[in-house]
Write a structure and sequence with these properties.
The complex is a heterotrimer of chains A (about 425), B (about 300) and C (about 325). Chain A is of the alpha/beta class. Helices cover about 45% and strands about 20% of the residues of chain A. In chain A, helix 3 runs parallel beside helix 4. Chain B is mainly alpha-helical and about 300 residues long. Chain B has a single domain, classed as ABC transporter involved in vitamin B12 uptake, BtuC. In chain B, about 75% of the residues lie in helices and about 5% in strands. In chain B, the strands form 2 sheets. A two-stranded antiparallel sheet of chain B has the order 1-4. A two-stranded antiparallel sheet of chain B has the order 2-3. In chain B, helix 9 crosses helix 10. The model of chain B has no long low-confidence stretch (mean pLDDT about 90). Chain C has 2 domains: about 230 residues, no CATH class; about 80 residues, no CATH class. Chain C has 13 helices and 2 strands. Chain C has a two-stranded antiparallel ribbon. Chain C is globular and about 60 Å long. Chain C starts with a helix and ends in an 18-residue tail after the last helix. Classes of the chains: A alpha/beta (about 425), B mainly alpha (about 300), C mainly alpha (about 325). At the A-C interface, helix 1, helix 2, helix 3, helix 4 and helix 6 of A face helix 1, helix 4, strand 1, helix 9 and strand 2 of C.
Chain lengths: ~425, ~300, ~325
């Protein structure tokens, strides 16, 4: 079933579609060249409970397309972002995505396809031969046989193992896992369970709490009784604030350290928790673990500058630029754009073969960190190697590149600072 | 053992907030025979009115009174100009429920459009922590329990000892008969909605104080446990709603303390279903109210 | 296969499965008067049942998802399992509604059942893989040895067959003696009982049959889209459908269809169109609130529903009362 809002099947719509198909608007064979501006699909929830992801994932698209267009476009084509609302509902997403694929002119690349709907949207985009860089963390894609799929962010299980590594490294041997019941946390658990014992740490207890409850007092009492060194935590801002406020009251003002994902690196989380337990706890005792990338490279600076320059992304730029998945999407867009130039074609089925070639290290290649440099080097007939915001990608046979991990802390103004790194190889090794 | 006593204490605190809301809901249904789903969004409205006031330096308890008055007036308006005319025209009850759901949606998204979707808070309001008989409560939780008790008592006295209260009970029980006794049933209805709306507003602010951090969905989320409490206690019975609130609150906290916390909200759902199936009149429900619930 | 062709196929499949679901719900709500706000649970039951009947055991695909079952049975068996699961879910939901409660309280009870089911499924990961839901990895099942284009159109054919068969079954329950009995039960349960109708049996039968329609709808849908998760069965879905039925007019196919068209078109066209209004766009950017037009969309939906019910409480196309006149036969 679907909400009437997003998915009406009316005779009128069907009639229009049949006219298109009958009058040859379908087009069975791929056209080798395309004219006009190119479209970059951002497949994410723009409505529904997860609507904020749409906003967050639009930002890297804005930055990348601004830079690409400023550098003269791709082979003479300008490129624009197209929002494709997947509504956060796996069933409703299908008609929206298929409609977008049918109606959007020159839809040759895509980003997004987040965890709630990836199960149904990923096969669609892949079948339409549109290369895409996804930001979902589902373990179901750790092994796959999708040709057009690429992922530069780690799976949820890898994130879980990274939490464990950081917690033990900080000296937190006994931990309690407190997760809100959602899809990402569910994926973290197997990684945590696998990694903690191998690192010599102990999971005292694991709790799944309901979202947005009025009171977590009983759950808090149970956690206090476990006497954990720290909590490995995942919950939305209100739930976190309510829980921590209860904890403070029941534990004589003493709060445990918290290791959580960089998904919580948002102004909403920062403000909600700060308002309730004070800025000192937020800046001193919360560790945010996620994808690592060097924030001093020219590639990063270009990315951040582009985010700051555009009015649509200016306000969220300081925080957003430090988070992995959007940066991965940005890199993916550049990689796909450069592959288009290399293949002399903007059509997905043609340039897909060059996507991996862009990032492979090769002798004599010019290392580039942004689109403009890459375009210039290719114009001079050189080979290039793209090393972008997330650094050197290392795609395995399944087109997954987990990358490195880092830990961050909040600053008093709500931005974050990196405080340590965790080796990607170690994390993957713990999962085996 | 200690966890058990603590959980009961938490349940009492949570139950007091539920009781505030449940009583208002119960009075509304008793008076007008309408399942008013807008009640949830009205609680949200109260929470945000409270936020508006507190951000400008108003004392939280004064803000609670303010929100109560505001929501009381809004409830009267809702009933007088939307629900009562529909009922008079013979609209089926289920269609009226759809109307209240729609009105709730409109109100909720107006709030989001104005105030934004981010989490809000009144800041640290709990005050001192008390240890009573092994239970741990904050000053604001104790205040809410006292407030709820006082309001229940006041309402009970109003209903049983005053002319107004007698008129309200008469109108609830049999409108036509009350009219023939010379009671201005329209005015009495307005008064009932004003009072129950005020309780709704108070519940919304109390909820925001207890839960510390909230957003625009806070009202509808708590509506079901409140309805569970109202049905458990018996529709139309203020004392019943208090008992219902306590039972639902304590049962939820016990579930959170001794089983998988993810299921704790299922407890409130379960209580509601069981009551509707087994004894719709609730523990203390009046017979006339029960007749309304049956087809 | 061209993108427009595939979109047409998607629309057709969704139309077919939507129709099956709408018929089931109309049977329960329109004809028999049962406000089943838990209807979505029967669809979800059908979808999950199809999934666990058709995929192999968890370990076979690397244990990346946990679930019960995994019987690896062929397509027709799994679809049948979906319909049966829907019927079973419908009957269980029906048991919770057996008490002769007023329609709106009954509706609330069923809504709560639906919330409970959603909470339990998403919290209990080993049961149906919790929040992540189930992914059907095997290649698209029926006719998998044929080329994809034929396969997809053949699937449209399967859905069409299901609809035709479903329609005939539906007519047996909405017209004729059974239909009249159900309408009698809806309009005056006491009177129906007084003349000897077995109300309990009737209600359970209706919920079973309606649930079977829902389960079949869910199974056919999930076989096509290859995935299903709790995100796909929020209770607002049924609420939206029931709103459409109330606004359009209960108990008759024209009213139901019109209601779906009206609410759907008004929302689909009107609200998407809001996105392009320049004044709104600039306000949105000023306040930095990207979802403002969506919020407005909800406000418009709610307001229009209230307006329609206010203007026509009995629905745009009220049910035509049969006229009994002329000479007795």
């Amino acid at each position: 079933m679907g909400t009437l809002k997003s998915r009406l099947v009316s005779p009128l719509a069907l009639g229009a579609v049949f006219l298109m198909v009958a009058c040859g608007g379908g087009g069975g064979t791929t056209i080798p060249t395309q004219t006009g501006p190119l479209s970059l699909g951002v497949i994410a929830p723009f409505t529904g409970p997860a609507a904020e992801f749409g906003k967050l994932l639009s930002a890297p698209c804005v930055a990348a397309t601004d830079l690409i267009n400023a550098a003269g476009g791709i082979s003479g084509h300008q490129i624009a972002c197209t929002s494709i609302d997947d509504t956060g509902d796996a069933a409703d997403a299908v008609p929206n995505v298929t409609r977008a694929i049918a109606t959007t002119t020159n839809l040759d690349m895509a980003i997004g396809l987040e965890s709630n709907t990836a199960a149904t949207t990923v096969p669609l985009v892949n079948a339409a031969k549109i290369p895409f860089f996804t930001t979902n963390g589902l373990t179901s894609f750790t092994k796959n046989n999708l040709q057009y799929y690429y992922r530069m962010t780690p799976g949820d299980d890898a994130n879980g193992a990274a939490f464990a590594v950081w917690a033990v490294r900080q000296g937190y041997k006994n931990i309690d896992i407190v997760f809100q019941n959602n899809i990402g946390s569910e994926g973290n658990l197997p990684g945590l369970n696998a990694a903690m014992p191998k690192l010599g740490g102990k999971i005292v207890n694991q709790y799944t709490i309901p979202a947005d409850a009025a009171s977590y007092s009983s759950e808090v009492a149970r956690v206090i009784a476990d006497k954990p060194d720290a909590l490995i935590w995942s919950a939305d801002p209100q739930t976190t604030a309510t829980f921590m406020s209860s904890y403070k009251q029941l534990n004589n003002g003493v709060l445990p350290a918290m290791v959580t994902a960089t998904d919580s690196l948002t102004p909403d989380f920062f403000n909600a928790v700060k308002k309730v337990v004070g800025v000192q706890y937020v800046t001193q005792s919360i560790w945010l673990v996620g994808s690592y990338f060097d924030q001093t490279t020219p590639a990063f600076n270009t990315y951040k500058a582009a985010l700051l320059a555009d009015a649509k992304t200016h306000d969220i730029a300081p925080v957003l630029s430090t988070v992995g998945p959007p940066a991965g999407a940005y890199d993916g867009i550049n990689i796909m754009a450069l592959a288009m130039i290399m293949a002399h074609s903007t059509v997905g089925s043609v340039y897909n073969a060059d996507v991996l070639k862009i990032v492979l290290p090769k002798a004599g290649a010019v290392v580039v960190g942004n689109y403009a440099d890459g375009k210039a080097a290719l114009a001079l007939g050189k080979q290039i190697q793209y090393v972008g915001v997330l650094g050197q990608p290392a795609f395995d046979q399944y087109h997954n590149s987990a990358g490195e991990f880092d830990a961050n802390k909040f600053n008093a103004d709500g931005s974050a600072t990196q405080v340590g790194t965790i080796s990607g190889a170690q994390v993957i090794g713990l999962l085996a | 053992m200690q966890l058990l006593i603590e959980a009961i204490g938490f349940g009492i605190a949570a139950g007091a907030v539920l009781a505030l809301g449940a009583v208002g809901f119960s009075v509304q249904f008793g008076m007008s025979n309408i399942l008013n789903i807008t009640y949830g969004s009205l609680m949200t409205l109260a929470a945000y009115i409270g936020l508006f006031a507190i951000d400008r330096g108003v004392n939280p308890w004064a803000a609670l009174a303010l929100a109560g008055i505001a929501v009381g007036i809004a409830s009267v308006a809702l009933h007088r100009w939307l629900l009562a005319p529909l009922a008079r025209r013979g609209t089926r009850p289920f269609a009226i429920v759809i109307v209240t759901v729609s009105a709730g949606i409109v109100l909720q998204y107006v709030i989001v459009a104005v105030a934004g979707p981010d989490a809000q808070s009144y800041g640290e309001q709990s005050g001192q922590t008390f240890h009573l008989l092994g239970m741990i409560m904050s000053a604001s939780q104790v205040t809410i329990i006292v407030l709820a008790t006082v309001l229940m008592l006041g309402l009970h006295l109003l209903l049983t000892r005053t002319t107004l209260g007698r008129a309200m009970r008469a109108t609830s029980s049999n409108r036509i008969l009350a009219q023939s006794c010379g009671i201005d049933t329209d005015l009495i209805s307005d008064v009932a909605w004003l009072i129950s709306g005020a309780l709704c507003g108070a519940a919304g602010v109390a909820l925001a104080i207890t839960t510390v951090s909230f957003d625009f969905s806070i009202g509808p989320i708590f509506l079901i446990p409140m309805i569970a409490a109202a049905v458990l206690g018996g529709i139309g019975q203020p004392y019943g709603a208090m008992v219902g609130g306590l039972v639902v609150g304590i049962a939820t906290e016990l579930a959170a303390a001794f089983s998988n916390p993810a299921y704790s909200e299922v407890v409130a759902f379960g209580i509601l279903i069981v009551m509707l199936l087994v004894r719709p009149r609730g523990l203390f429900g009046a017979a006339w109210a029960t007749r309304r619930l049956m087809a | 296969m061209g993108a427009w062709e595939f979109y047409a196929i998607v629309l057709l499949v969704y139309l077919g499965t939507d129709l099956l679901a709408a018929w089931g719900l109309n049977l329960e709500f329109g004809v028999a008067g049962i406000a089943n706000l838990a209807f979505i649970v029967t669809i979800a039951a059908g979808a999950y049942a199809y999934a666990i009947f058709t995929i192999g055991p968890p370990a076979a695909s690397g244990s990346f998802q946990e679930y019960v079952g995994g019987f690896n049975l062929p397509f027709p068996v799994a679809i049948a399992a979906g319909a049966v699961a829907g019927a079973a879910a419908g009957i269980v939901i029906g048991i919770t509604g057996l008490k002769r409660l007023r329609q709106d309280y009954q509706a609330m009870a069923m809504l709560v059942v639906s919330l409970m089911a959603a909470t339990i499924v998403s919290a209990d990961t080993p049961f149906l893989n919790g929040n992540a839901g189930l992914v059907i990895l095997s290649t698209f099942a029926p006719f998998s040895d044929q080329d994809p284009e034929f396969q997809r159109w053949a699937y449209v054919g399967i859905v069409l067959l299901a609809c035709i068969g479903g329609y005939f079954v539906l007519r047996r329950f909405t017209t004729g003696p059974i239909g009249r009995t159900l309408r009698a039960m809806r309009d005056d349960e006491l009177a129906a009982q007084a003349i000897g109708k077995d109300i309990v049996g009737l209600r359970l039968m209706v919920q079973g049959v309606g649930g079977a329609f829902g389960g079949l709808s869910g199974a056919l849908l999930v076989a096509f889209i290859s995935g299903w998760s709790p995100s796909a069965w929020a209770y607002v879905e049924t609420l939206a459908l029931l709103t459409a039925v109330i606004v359009g007019g209960m108990g008759n196919d024209r009213g139901v269809s019109f209601g779906m068209l009206l609410i759907g078109i008004v929302i689909l066209q009107g609200v998407q169109f809001l996105n392009d209004v320049p004044v709104l766009k600039s306000i949105e950017e000023q306040l930095n609130r990207t979802a403002l037009t969506q919020d407005l969309g909800w406000i418009v939906l709610g307001t229009l529903t209230i307006v329609f019910i206010w203007l026509r409480p009995q629905g745009i196309f009220p049910e035509r009362r049969p006229k009994y006149g002329g000479k007795p036969s």
